Amino acid sequence: QQSAEPPACKCTMDFVEKSIQKVNQLGAGGGGGTDSKYFQTTKKGEIHELREELANPKMEKKKEAVKKVIAAMTVGKDVSMLFTDVVNCIQTVNIELKKLVYLYLINYAKSQPDLAILAVNTFVKDTQDVNPLIRALAVRTMGCIRVDKIVEYLCEPLRKCLKDEDPYVRKTSAVCVAKLYDINGELVEDQGFLDMVYDLLGDSNPMVVSNAVAALAEISETSELGQKVFQINTSTLQKMLAALNECTEWGQVFILDSLALYCPSDGREAESIIERVTPRLQHANSAVVLSAVKVMIKYMDLITSQDTLKALYKKMAPPLVTLLSSEPEIQYVALRNINLIVQKRPTILAHEIKVFFSKYNDPIYVKMEKLEIMIKLASERNVDQVLMELKEYATEVDVEFVRRSVRAIGRCAIKLERAAERCINVLLELIQTKVNYVVQEAVIVIKDIFRKFPNRYESIIGTLCENLDTLDEPEAKGSMIWIIGEYAERIDNADELLESFLESFDDETASVQLQMLTATVKLFLKRPAETQKMVQDVLTLATQDSDNPDLRDRGYIYWRLLSTDPEAAKQVVLAEKPNINDDSFTLDPSVLDELITHLSTLASIYHKPPSTFITGRTRMVPTLGGGAHDDEYEESDANITSDMMDGGMGGAQAAPPAMPAPSAGG
Question: Which of 201, 211, 202 is closest to 169 using CA atoms?
Answer without folding.
Answer: 211
